[in-house]
Amino acid sequence: MDIPTKIGSAITALQTHVGALQRSLEDQINKLRSEKSHLLAQSESFAEIVATRDCRIEELEEQNRRQARRIEFLESRQAEADRRESVANSM
């Protein structure tokens, strides 16, 4: 084989190899884009779940505050009733 033929063969081999590398990179890019889309969708789903959970926590905390106020009110009424009963019993 003469030098120009060897150079031509080497160039052809390099072009083939570069083409294969480009296809491989394109495949990897497509795979990464797909994974990115999947992760983005998953992230959005998790954000919705967290927002729903946070809202529910706030609702439960407010419910707990209302119940605590109700308990305090009932305890004060009970204490008042106990005082009245004590006064009535001491007469």
UniProtKB/TrEMBL annotation:
Coiled coil is among the record's keywords: yes
Coiled coil (residue ranges): 22-84
Highest taxon, organism lineage: Eukaryota
Keywords: Coiled coil
Full protein name: Uncharacterized protein
Naturally occurring in which organism (per UniProt): Hortaea werneckii (Black yeast)
